[in-house]
Task: structure prediction
Amino acid sequence: MPGLGGQPIFVMSEDAERKTGEDAQQNNIEACKTVSSAVRTTLGPKGMDKMMVDSVGDIVVTNDGVTILEEMDLDHPAAQMMVEVAQTQEEEVGDGTTTAVVLAGELLKNAEDLLDQDIHPTVITKGYRLSREKCTDILEQISLDADLNDEDTLRKVAMTAMTGKSAETARDYLADIAVEAVSSVADESSDRIFVDEDSIKLEKKKGSSVEDTDLVQGVILDEEKVHSGMPSEVEDARIALIDSAIEVKETSTDAEINISDPAQMQNFVEQEEEQLKDMVDAIDEAGANVVLCQKGIDDIAQHYLAKKGIFAIRRVSSGDLDKLSNATGGNIITSIDEIEESDLGNAGSVEHKHVGGDAMTFVQDCPEAESVSILIRGGTDHVVDEIERAMEDAIGAVTSAVKHGKVVGGGGATEVELAQELRDYADSVGGREQLAINAFADALEVIPRTLAENAGFDPIDSLVELRNQHDSGEEMAGLNVSSGESEELYEQGVVEPRQTKTQAVQSASESAEMILRIDDVIAASGFDAAGGDSGGGAPEGGPGGGGMPGGGMGGLM
Result:
């Protein structure tokens, strides 16, 4: 920039790159559209899967939106904001990540058309904000009640969340497991239901079939007993949960012992053994027949435990120890010397089993268990991983439905109804914001359009038929992806939590508004504002400087 006497003044490094105005907006929008289009084909029951291959050759096959985005190697800052949209959706609701990202991309696409008409970004963002607030009100009006006792509706929610994933072939069975797991850990108090999803532990082992997936009222540990002489099964288990080592403590200061007689050495060893025996005796006298230890167990201590018929496991994680405390009602013990019978937890049985060639321990039949475990089975590692993601979605969806107590119709029904209501609302809003509200309504319809495209039907014909159904008062009319017809899908079991839609609309709209308000991108030295390092290429399907570094997105392109 010019300074005194016409001399230029440099306020940034010569290597820094800056994009301003329309260039910055177009660059950010194209990056986000590219990310959105990458996951768009995975939406719905007929969506396709993506194979992600990382730099070391590890493969992930999935159609889970947040997993795809997290596996993609995205360096463009605007593209990373789309990943945050999916992550927020996953954390808050547990399902609907693809919907949120696709909607955000469509909002930016429609905003681009408005920018071409010389409508200022602040006008567009105001219209989008009004639309978002109106959508929240509409969703409250069109949602239906659901509660913890409505198992049929919750089962439909779980089945809808798993539709289109590898788990679909066994979704009836898996949906029952998801609903039972959430019901087991749900805590109902003062007209509110709290569900701690961390109390539902997922363990996976390849081998057998998906139908062999099992729910355990307790905790499954991917650990084996420490000594072959210990029993493989303990009935009426009284469990000591210990977070300290069953070992002789080392001195905190360096010490040197001079031994002049072999007998002194023997005495020293015997004293250590006596200390370990005292620890085991304290555990035994408290009445414990199972020991689950977070840290190590000395070999000699293992021997004494086995002699007393006590089942023991070491290296149990702190998270599993907390789950065990919730499931068994036991206290976590920090000092073995102070262990008492009242500190012990209870379980119907603790069993050492071999599953898929690996040893596992089942702590089950816990009274009033506040922690449960699901053992997921499948033919291969990739299948088991995808079943796990499907189960996480189902648990998240059921949890959301239970916590908020509201559900809506799926199959694009909710989005079409929102779009219809928004267009009516736009007529009551003056100024250019009306155009932005209509653009928001059009963006919402990307969901039923995409469902139709992915199922092989004409998106325009499908959308027109859906609009006609909703005009005639059919609020729950959605797209049947098997027949291509507009039908009342709610009664057919296509049900989603209201919060899934609310969060998707909010996250997508807020991220789109933020990106639209950016008119200046300053890239530091060594970073290419076009989307990555100086060697980055343009994304496929987008203009130069549109988005992904290194000419691609992970293993997708």
About this structure: Residues 529-557 have pLDDT under 50 and may be disordered. The first strand starts at residue 17 and ends at 20.
